[in-house]
Protein 1
Amino acid sequence: MGRRQYPWVLAAVPWSDAPQYTRGTHDGLPLLSHGCAPRDKLATYRQLRAIGRRPGGQDPVAVLYGRHNRSKKRWFASLYLISRSLPVRPMTPAKWTALAKANLARRICRTCGKDPLYVVPTSTRQCWPCFEITCESNETTDVMEAA
Ligand SMILES: [Zn+2]
C-alpha cells in the first residue's frame, strides 16, 4: 500500500468559476496531476508554442506534475491560461528592413555623411577621420585665439 503523496483538494482556480479538484499546491499554485489538467484551458509553455502562442507576460496559474516512466522521477511544468496567451509574432520582412535602417542610421557620420562600417560614437556622431579633423581645427582655433 503506497501512501498517496498528493491528496485531492477542492480549490478555487483561475480557469474555472466553480472550485476544481487539485492535488494541493506547489510554490503557492494549484497542483495538477498529468492527465487531469483541462487541456482546452491550460497549457505548458511548450504546448503554447506548439499551437503558435506564447504566455504573453502572464504568470503561470498552476503547476502540472507527472512521473517519467523510465527514471520514475517526478517532473513539474508551469501551466498558463490559453485564454490569456498571445499569438507568437514572427519577424516580418518590414520589421527586418526597419531594423536594418535603424542600424544604418547609427553608423552614418554626420560630418561627411559616409558609412564608416561601424557604429559611430553617440557623443560625436562622427567617424574617426572627421573627429580627428574637428579636434585639429579646434586646436588651431585655440592657438590663433591665444596668439
Ligand atoms: Zn566622417
Protein 2
Amino acid sequence: MTPLLAAENLVKSFSVSTGWRNTKRFYAVDNVSLHVERGRTLAIVGESGCGKSTVGSMLLRLQDPDSGRILLDGAGVMTLDRDGLRRFRRRVQVVFQDPFASLDPRERIRDVLMRPMLLHQLCDKAEAPKRAAALMEAVGLSASQLDRFPHQFSGGQRQRIAIARALSVQPDVIICDEPVSALDVSVQAQVVNLLQDLQRDTGVALIFISHDLSVVRHLAHEVAVMYSGRVVEQGETKPLFERPSHPYTQALLAAAPTIEAPKRAPTLLSGEPPDPTDRTPGCRFAARCAYRTEQCLQEEPALMKIEGEHLAACFLAKTLPPVSNAVDVLSETPAAARIAAYRRARDGQTILPGEMQK
Ligand SMILES: Nc1ncnc2c1ncn2[C@@H]1O[C@H](COP(=O)(O)OP(=O)(O)OP(=O)(O)O)[C@@H](O)[C@H]1O
Ligand SMILES: [Mg+2]
C-alpha cells in the first residue's frame, strides 16, 4: 500500500562556523526515512536537538532537504509548481508547540478560521462562518467566541484554535510539533484526547513530535525514535514499548518519569549526544552505550528487522537483555493516568477525586 506521507532518505545539514573562515557541515538530519498512513499517528521521539523539528519542517516543505524525497500519496513533492505547492499546503497542515506565537494577536478567531478555507476555495463567503462555528464546536469551544482575539483565550484554548485552523482546510495530515509541551499538565490530556477524537471522526493522519513517552504510547500507532539526526528504532507502538531493542530507546524508557519519581534522573543516559559535525565511522550512540563492541566503533549499524515491521539500528539488538518493565513504568506515569481519567470522565464514568490533578 502506498503510504499517505513518506520521507525517503532525508538529509539536512547546516554550515556552522568553527573559527576564522572555517566552517563545518552539521548534519541535523541524516538519512531519515519514515511514513504515515491515513487515520494513523506516527510519533517522532528523541532528545532535544536530535532533529525532530527539522524532519517536521521538511515534511511541511518549510525547508528543503539537501537530498532525499518526500512523497504524498506516492507522488514526489520536491518539484511542485505554485499551484501544486498550494494544494500540498492544504493537505499537510501543522500545529506548533506555542499557541501564543502561532496565532496573529490582531486577528479575530473568525478570520483565523475562515481565511484558510477561503484561500483554498473550500467554500464561499456565505458558507465560511457556518464552517467556522462548526469547527469551534468540534474542538470543544463555542461559536459565540468567534469574535474574540487570541489573547482572550487560555493556552489550552488557543491550542484548540490552532487545531481548528489546521482542520479548517480538511487536511490529510497534521504535523504536531510538541503540541502539548507548552501547556499545563492538566490541559495536556484534554488536547491529546481531542486530537484522538478528531482523528477518529475525520481520519486525519498525525505526525506527533514529542518528548513525552507516556503520551506517545497512548496516542501513537507507530513510533520512530531519533538519535543524533537518525532513526535508531521504529515500529508499531506496542511491540516497540514492550520490547525496546535499541539501547538508546531502552535508556529513554528507563529515564521516563513515573508517579513515584516524577523527575527520574536519566541514569542510563549519561553523557552528551555526539558532535553532529563529526563524521567518523561507527554507531552514533556508541560513546554512551553500555553494550558497545569493537564493531560498533568501526561500522554504522543500519536499521535491522527485530520482528515484522519493528526495526532497530543496533548490531546487538537481538541479544540485549530485555527491558521488561518499560510498559509498566509508562502506564503508571502521571500523563497516562490523567489521559485515562479524562477518557473515563468523557464517557460518563466516575473518576476518583484528585485523579485529574495528578
Ligand atoms: N537553521 C538552522 N541552522 C543551524 N542549525 C540548525 C538550524 N535548525 C536546526 N539546527 C540544529 O539542528 C539540530 C536539530 O534541531 P531540531 O530543532 O530539529 O531538534 P529537535 O529534535 O526538534 O529538538 P527539540 O526537542 O529541542 O525541539 C539542533 O542541534 C539545531 O541546533
Ligand atoms: Mg523541536
Protein 3
Amino acid sequence: MPLSKKERATVAVTGVTGALGGRVATRLADHKVPQLLIGRRPELLPELPGAQRRGPASYADAGDMRKALSGASTLVLVSGHRTGRRLEEHATVVQAAIAEGVDRILYVSLVSAGPTATYLNARDQWMTERYLAGTEIRHTVLRAGWYTSTPAALADEEFVVRGPASTGRAAFVTHEDIADVITAVALDGDDRSEHDGATLDITGPDALTLDEAITRIAAATGRPYRFEPETLDEAFARRWRQGITGEQIETWISWYQAIERGEISTVTDVVPRLTGSPATPISDAAWWPEPKTARGVR
Ligand SMILES: NC(=O)c1ccc[n+]([C@@H]2O[C@H](COP(=O)([O-])OP(=O)(O)OC[C@H]3O[C@@H](n4cnc5c(N)ncnc54)[C@H](OP(=O)(O)O)[C@@H]3O)[C@@H](O)[C@H]2O)c1
C-alpha cells in the first residue's frame, strides 16, 4: 500500500548534537519518521534509522541551510546559543525553510519569552516568535520550561547553589517531557493541525522555590545539594571576584531574578495533554548533570 502523506512527511531537526534536539531525533526515529538531521559538525550527528545527516550548516548561513533543508516538510528549529545575533540567525533559517518549500516550522523557544523578560536569554526568543508570526508559514511555538537539570548543574564542587532568589518559584521540566511534547506535535503532520499558530508553554508539574527544588534533587541523588540565597550585592561581588564577565554576571543574575519575580512559575497542562502522561516531578528526573556544568548561567 502506498504511504500516506503523513507517513511520507520528512522532518528536519536542528540542534541534534545538543540535549534537546538529540532527544527529539531519537524519538522521531523510534516512530519511523524520515528525518534530516542538521548540524554544524555533521560528523557529530547520531546515526539513526531513517535519518540522513545534513551539513555542515550553521543558522547564519542561508545557502548551507537551504541545502540541508531540501526535501523537508516539517522543520523542528531548536533555538541556538545566544550570540547577540540570534534573531538574525533564526530568521535566516526560517527564510531558508520557506525558500525550500517546508510546510511548517516548530520553533523551540523558552518560557517567559518577552521583550522585557527578566531572564536575558528569553528576550531574543520572543523576537524570533514575532518574526515567525509575521511570515506566512504554518508554525507552532514550543516554549520549553526551564530544565530540572539546571539547578544541579549550577552547584559548586561542594554541591552548594547560591543566588539572588528566595521565595520565587519555577515549574522546572525534564528534557524528556519537553522532547515528548515536541515529538507529539511533529507527529501531528496533517495538512491542518490544532497546534498551527499556537504557543505551548511546556512546564513541569509543580512550581518550586529553589530551596525546594534543590532539596528534592539532594534526596533524589543522595548528594548533599543545598541552596543558599544571596542578596544582589553578594551575588554580584562573588561572581566578579571569580573573574566572570559583566555580560555573564548579568545573564546569571537574571536567571535567579526571573524566578524571584514569578516569571517561570506557571504550571500548564501541556505535557499531560499532548503526551498522555503526567509531567515528571523533579525527584523523578532520569539523570543529573555534574556540578559546575551549567551553560550560559555559570
Ligand atoms: N529550557 C532551558 O532551561 C534551556 C536551558 C539552556 C538553553 N536553552 C535553549 O534551548 C536550546 C536547546 O537546549 P539544549 O539543552 O539542547 O542546548 P545544547 O545542548 O547546548 O544544544 C544546542 C544545539 O543547538 C546547536 N546550535 C546552537 N547554535 C547554533 C547555530 N548558530 N547554528 C547551528 N546550530 C546551532 C548546537 O550545535 P553545536 O553542537 O554545533 O554547538 C547544539 O546542537 C539552547 O540552544 C538554548 O537556546 C534552554
Protein 4
Amino acid sequence: MPSALLGSLGGQQLPDDELLELWKPLRADETMANRQRQDTSKPVADQIYTTLRDMIIGGLLEPGMRIRQRELATKLNVSRIPLREALPRLEAEGLITTTPRRGAVVAQLTEQDARELFEVRAALDAMAARLAAAKCATEQTAQNLEDALEKTEEATDAGDVDRIAAAHMNLHEQILALADSTLLAKLTAQIAGRVKLVSLDTGIADPKQLHYEHISICNAIRRGQVELAGALLSAHDPRCRTNS
Ligand SMILES: [Zn+2]
C-alpha cells in the first residue's frame, strides 16, 4: 500500500520541474495564463483549480497542509475570488477538506481510503465495460475504441512513457463514452484525483502487459461479451492510468 498517503509526500515523491515552476512567484510581465500548460481560454477559476489539483496530486501541497488563501493568491498572482471558487471543486473531489477551525486543508488519505478508492474504481470500470459491451452487442460500433487501442499499441511500441500514459487514459475514456452513462462518468471523475494521489508510489506496470490486457478488454467489448468485459476490467492492473 502506498506509504505516501500516510503522511508527507515530500520524502517520497519529488514534484516535477513543471510543478515547481508553477509555484514560483510570477514575474511582472508574466501571468498564470502564459505560465500554465492548460487551455488558457479557460476562466481563471478553472485554471487555478487545475493548478491546485496538479500541486496536490504532484505532492507540492502536502497532505495536512493548510491552504492559506491570501498567501496562495499572492504566489499565483490572482485575486482570492477565483481561488475561493476553486476550493469547493477540490473539496468535492476529496482532495481537500474544510474544517471550521483550520479552513481548507489538503486531504490526508489513509490506507483504508486507498483500499476503498481502488475497489470503487474497479467496480465503476467494470460497470463501464459491461455497459459498453451491451451497447456493442446491440447497435453501437466501437470505432473510437479501436482507434484508442491502436494508439496505445503505437505508444507502447515507441516506449514513450508520456504517450503511453495519455493513450491509456484515452482508451478508458472511450470505454466510458461507449457506456454512455452521465452518472457513471461523473462518479468516475469524482474519484480520479484521489486515486492518483494514493497511487504515487505504487510503481509503474509493464506497458506491454497492460497492452495485452487492453486487447482482451477491447475484444470482449467489441464482441458484446458483457460479463467477460466486466470481469476483465475487474481484474485489470490497478496501476493503469495512475502515472499520467
Ligand atoms: Zn487500462
